[in-house]
């Protein structure tokens, strides 16, 4: 009977060599319930490659049946004119949840768009080229140049705008419909030599996230004005810089303790709002003005990057914008008037990333338009920076991950990464060609859709054409 039975398989001999256990990265991701930063960076190349323009929404809007001021500036006798310095979208901003998008134009229009309406309409046939004006939350023509817009982070019903031609902070409450601002804050006039008063225009705005009454705004005279709305419509404190040059951009850190400012003369300033005394900023103080805690000349810091200094003549340039990385709070991104972008590590006070696009003369591109202050934006994840090109119609999507594996890092070694055999998913900076020249960018806080404002006062929706793995 035994001959009909299948013979037993010999038991495998146990090897004396130690067994190498494989680490299952995907299992760890599933167990932890979150994506590790290094894993996010490893697939960020797929995300950057997935963006493309979906739809352009032109500012052909009306007020009471008549073309608004921005619309009228594009038309003469029914014909549309090429862009001028008096038009174009100057700033964009999403609210905290990405429900509303606020935009302002140099012609003086403030518009609050419903983002869901824009997103749904971007998937409709191309025959529907115009945005549905009936879905606007707010559309006002203020008959003055507008240069910046910001949502109040502590009160999402409040949208605020400023102009570099006026010394006013205009605050609008969208919870009720009104063509007039709910509140107007003003700076103190600066006396001139001959006794007359010189009005200071305002550029950027910031809010303390923990306190609704406090507002900060930079001006064209190198000062950051601070208002306590419970006390007065005039500033209670001025943060002064070392020069009278215009401050183009300000950023308040997450602890509401340090505010950074940068502008025309190529310096980055930092002020400690506490003033060296515990919580003195929030308890009140008799100080009228306060000097900066630190003053950094950006061109001197760029000269410390050896390969960059060997290839380029480093000169002081105007800083258009600064932005703190939401993923890595010690990374302060900057953008210069010649199109360069980079990152300043505010802990070590050194430039860690730099992106230098080819100059306009190299490929016969259009010379950079200096009538606009380009306003970039960070993606909410992955430390990716989005900035409009200074010479071409399009945006640069830049990998500013806080590590030498970023292709923009000053210590990045392409040959070493290639020899290491690490799969980088084609991690490299990308240029996305668009239909119009970009002046300002805003990124949706949840789905990372990019909205770009253009020199022709259009909104371009740039979204992912496929989902990254």
From TrEMBL:
Gene3D superfamilies hit by this protein: YVTN repeat-like/Quinoprotein amine dehydrogenase (2.130.10.10)
Protein name, UniProt field: Transducin/WD40 repeat-like superfamily protein
InterPro entries: WD40/YVTN_repeat-like_dom_sf, WD40_repeat_dom_sf, WD_repeat_multifunction
Stored PANTHER family: ANAPHASE-PROMOTING COMPLEX SUBUNIT 4 WD40 DOMAIN-CONTAINING PROTEIN (PTHR19857:SF21), MITOCHONDRIAL DIVISION PROTEIN 1-RELATED (PTHR19857)
Domain of life the protein comes from: Eukaryota
SUPFAM superfamilies associated with the record: WD40 repeat-like
Protein source organism: Rubus argutus (Southern blackberry)
Key words of the record: Repeat, WD repeat
């Amino acid at each position: 009977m035994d001959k009909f039975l299948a013979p037993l398989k010999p038991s495998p001999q146990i090897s004396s060599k130690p067994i190498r256990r494989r680490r299952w990265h995907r299992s760890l991701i599933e167990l932890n319930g979150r994506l590790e930063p290094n894993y996010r960076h490893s697939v960020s190349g797929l995300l950057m490659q997935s963006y493309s323009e979906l739809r352009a929404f032109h500012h052909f809007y009306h007020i009471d049946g008549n073309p608004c001021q921005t619309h009228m500036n594009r038309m003469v006798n029914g014909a549309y004119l090429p862009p001028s310095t008096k038009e174009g979208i100057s700033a964009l901003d999403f609210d905290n949840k990405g429900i509303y998008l606020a935009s302002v134009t140099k012609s003086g229009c403030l518009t609050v768009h419903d983002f869901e309406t824009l997103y749904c309409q971007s998937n409709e046939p191309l025959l529907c080229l115009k945005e549905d004006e009936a879905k606007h939350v707010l559309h006002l023509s203020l008959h003055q140049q507008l240069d910046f817009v910001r949502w109040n982070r502590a009160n999402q019903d409040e949208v605020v705008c400023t102009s570099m031609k006026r010394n006013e902070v205009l605050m609008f409450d969208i919870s009720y419909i009104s063509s007039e601002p709910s509140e107007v804050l003003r700076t103190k006039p600066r006396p001139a030599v001959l006794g007359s008063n010189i009005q200071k225009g305002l550029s950027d705005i910031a809010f303390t996230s923990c306190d609704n009454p406090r507002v900060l705004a930079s001006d064209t005279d190198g000062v950051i004005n601070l208002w306590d709305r419970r006390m007065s419509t005039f500033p209670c404190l001025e943060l002064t810089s070392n020069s009278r040059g215009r401050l183009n951009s300000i950023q308040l850190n997450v602890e509401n303790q340090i505010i950074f400012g940068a502008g025309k003369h190529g310096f980055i300033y930092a002020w400690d709002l506490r003033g060296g005394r515990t919580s003195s900023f929030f308890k009140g103080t008799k100080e009228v003005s306060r000097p900066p805690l630190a003053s950094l000349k950006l061109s001197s810091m760029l000269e410390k990057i050896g390969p960059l200094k060997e290839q380029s003549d480093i000169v002081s340039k105007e800083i258009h914008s600064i932005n703190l990385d939401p993923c890595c709070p010690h990374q302060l991104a900057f953008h210069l008037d010649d199109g360069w972008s980079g990152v300043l590590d505010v802990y070590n006070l050194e430039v860690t990333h730099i992106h230098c696009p080819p100059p306009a003369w190299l490929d016969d591109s259009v010379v950079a338009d200096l009538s606009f202050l380009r306003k970039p934006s960070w993606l909410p994840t992955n430390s990716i920076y989005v900035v409009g090109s200074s010479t071409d119609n399009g945006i640069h999507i830049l990998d500013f991950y806080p590590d030498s594996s970023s292709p923009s890092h000053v210590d990045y070694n392409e040959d070493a990464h290639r020899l290491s055999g690490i799969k980088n998913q084609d991690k490299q900076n990308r240029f996305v060609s668009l239909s119009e020249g970009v002046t300002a960018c805003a990124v949706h806080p949840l789905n990372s859709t990019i909205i770009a404002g253009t020199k022709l006062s259009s909104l371009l929706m740039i979204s992912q054409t496929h989902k990254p793995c």
